Amino acid sequence: EVEKLDLKQAIIVGLKEEAKKATTSKLKERKALEIVEEEIVPALNQVGTLYEEQTIFLPQLIKSAEAAKKAFEVLQQAMTKEESSIHAQKPKVALATVYGDIHDIGKNIVKVIMENYHFEVYDLGKDVPSEKVIEAVKKHDIRIVGLSALMTTTVGSMKETIAALKVACPEVKVIVGGAVLTPDLAEFVEADYYAKDAMESVRIAEKLC
Ligand code: B1M
């Protein structure tokens, strides 16, 4: 009998259908957010290490990312969005992965969690130039911007985006996150806040409202 793969293994070896099945069965005993933080993120971190060590290569990295996305789709459906009249005025947040960076799994997780906590999220996508961020902030009168960067090479791009944004929209508050960031780097890019994960972004954004 073939043994069933657990979620972490399914992501590491890059099997979409297995990842989907494992997520569905995990949901019977665990909360969606716990599955994200305790299974999906550690699995992808391990994949990153294997890639860095050249134990796996880009095609496998891509397969793992696809498996993680599949797992997350299942979780997204499970997270119920309860609309409540108390939250008629939803605070607005713009989210973007900075210019030059195409990693968007983390940003997408932040988006779903924030929406669950009644924020209205303007998702600007990945590889986003600073002009596009500024345009969205002005157009929708947004006060909170969340920027994501995953690579050492795109930390500079994050700093440039924040500098341009602060000139064009001085009242805006910027939260930064992404695997490459640390509190020190967040200070270096002159962000207002550093969020280590999706829940921390919610806690910070709630204080800003
Ligand atoms: Co790439 N990649 N990748 N990759 N990839 C990394 C980042 C890397 C660390 C792997 C490694 O070598 N160890 C490395 C960067 C090295 C460095 O600069 N230090 C790397 C590289 C080099 C590359 C390419 C250049 C490879 C190549 O082409 N030769 C290329 C990049 C091209 C580009 O961007 N221009 C590339 C491509 C890819 C894939 C497409 C295959 C895929 C991305 C798919 C996608 O996102 N759609 C991919 C993946 C999956 C990874 C790893 C393995 C996993 C990233 C991830 O999704 N983590 C990664 C290794 C690693 O990170 N350890 C790696 C899970 C995710 C949930 O975490 O995004 O940190 P994270 O989000 C967290 C928090 O950080 C926080 O909340 C989230 C939930 O807790 N957070 C925020 C994130 N954003 C926030 C914003 C906020 C608040 C909180 O604002 C409010």
* Structural class computed from helices and strand pairing: alpha/beta
What is the 3D form? globular
- The CA-CA distance between the termini, in Å, is 54 Å
- The sequence of SSEs as H and E is HHHHEHEHEHEHEH
The ligands bound in this entry are: CO-5-methoxybenzimidazolylcobamide
Largest sheet: 5 strands, parallel
> What is the count of DSSP helices, taking H or I runs of 4+ residues?
9
CA gyration radius, whole angstroms: 18 Å
**Chain-averaged pLDDT:** 93
Helix fraction bin: 55-70%
Q: What amount of the residues lies in strands?
A: 5-15%
Strand order of the largest sheet: 2-1-3-4-5
Low-confidence stretches: none
> What's the β-strand tally?
5
Which labels suit this protein?
209 residues, alpha/beta, 5-stranded parallel beta sheet, 9 helices, 5 strands, 11% strand, binds CO-5-methoxybenzimidazolylcobamide, Homocysteine methyltransferase
What would you say this structure looks like, in words?
Keywords: Methyltransferase, Transferase. It comes from Sporanaerobium hydrogeniformans. This is Homocysteine methyltransferase. The chain is of the alpha/beta class. 56% of the residues lie in helices and 11% in strands. It has nine helices and five strands, in the order H-H-H-H-E-H-E-H-E-H-E-H-E-H. The chain has helices spanning 7-13, 16-26, 32-52, 58-78, 105-116, 130-140, 152-168, 183-188, 198-208, and strands at 92-97, 120-123, 144-148, 173-177, 193-194. It has a five-stranded parallel beta sheet, sandwiched between helices. Helix 1 (7-13) runs antiparallel to helix 2 (16-26), helix 3 (32-52) packs antiparallel against helix 4 (58-78) and helix 5 (105-116) packs across helix 9 (198-208). It is globular and about 55 Å long. The mean pLDDT is 93. The structure holds CO-5-methoxybenzimidazolylcobamide (B1M). The site of CO-5-methoxybenzimidazolylcobamide (B1M) has 36 residues, from helix 3, helix 4, helix 5, strand 3 and helix 7.
